[in-house]
Amino acid sequence: MEQSILNSYNEAKRLYALHGIDVEQVLEQLAEIKISLHCWQGDDVKGFLNKDKELGGGIAVTGSYPGRAGTPEELRRDLEQALALIPGRHKVNLHAIYADTEEEVELDKLEPKHFENWVHWAKEQGLGLDFNPTCFSHEKAKDGFTLSHPDKEIRDFWIKHCQASRRIAESFGQALGQPCVTNFWVPDGYKDTPVDRLSPRVRLKESLDEIFSEKIDESYNIDAVESKLFGIGSESYVVGSHEFYMGYALSMGKAVCFDAGHFHPTEVISNKLSSWLMFGDRLLLHVSRPVRWDSDHVVTMDDELLEIARELVRGQLLDRTHIGLDFFDGSINHIAAWVIGTRNTIKALLRAMLEPVETLKQIELSGDYTSRLALVEEFKSYPFGAVWDYYCAKQGVPVREGWLSEVKKYEQEVLLKR
Ligand code: RNT
Ligand code: ZN
Fold this sequence. Notes:
globular; binds L-rhamnitol; eight-stranded parallel β-sheet; TIM Barrel; binds zinc ion; 14 helices; alpha/beta; 418 residues; two-stranded antiparallel sheet; L-rhamnose isomerase
């Protein structure tokens, strides 16, 4: 390791120690945290089944930056490249449409065998896997409804797809020795004001009940349900609203997935986590960045990211939280997007861990809000960057922007030749 990195680190360690923060211990804790990298950033949410299908479900990718992955091999190679530039051991989050098979298989007929290559790869790379049924970009989702569709046949198709997805997830958990988190998100909703808000919700609940009626060991698969306020084409009403899934998850013992872009523009998920975890067991995060709407921009080191990280650290919620990413920007290098978003998420957690939490809590309790504000603000310029650099070097990944030249090289040698 470069001497200057070590020197800065030692000085930072000394400063943090003055506030009772054990930096070595923090780094050990940080190394235990897994971030789930969403595979769909690598190819603009296209997938490999039904390749000719348009992206549906009221989500959108803009930009046509060259080099996106077109095959499972390319996607795995790209993920390897990204992961080589991110400190720690993580997970990869697959959607059902990323099945790796030559077979023409419908979503309701998917089986663990269609994902065998992914499992082999994950094992070889020491990665965990997470999963999602894909209830969009499909003929049967064209009119905007899936699990809550008024037509029973269509509902049944999606129920079968979700059941198949849970079995695939279970197989991941069994093969990899760590639970797979399966996230259920459906786009169902109306563009314009509905007359009947209740019936679609009744149907969604019934469909979910049927999906979850099959018991699967939680050491292999953990179910999460993701709400949303609106989507393109479901501006007025979304069946799976926040309140719907809060109620559902609490009564059924499921995890709730909070996506940072799925609420009103001034509403933040950081303020929701502690309340949820008072009553629910687990949560899944979709760390994302909405810009004016659910735009899924690459995660930056903004106030909300820091606040989410602080909530997890200060409330000791990390043990019960699964951290996944959910953004897709087609206007920049696809690998750089992963690297920037993931490094920022880890870095935000580190920053949160490098705060004198106990002292701050005491100060707050004593009513000394002047000191609270003063200390929180001063800590914003404490030398967390020196600790981060040391951590990257120690984990064998590029320090500071050193990763960028590797991405550029990979772009020249691999991406631009596709
Ligand atoms: C959509 C949800 C959902 C998707 C992924 C692709 O608004 O955020 O999580 O982004 O499943
Ligand atoms: Zn999401």
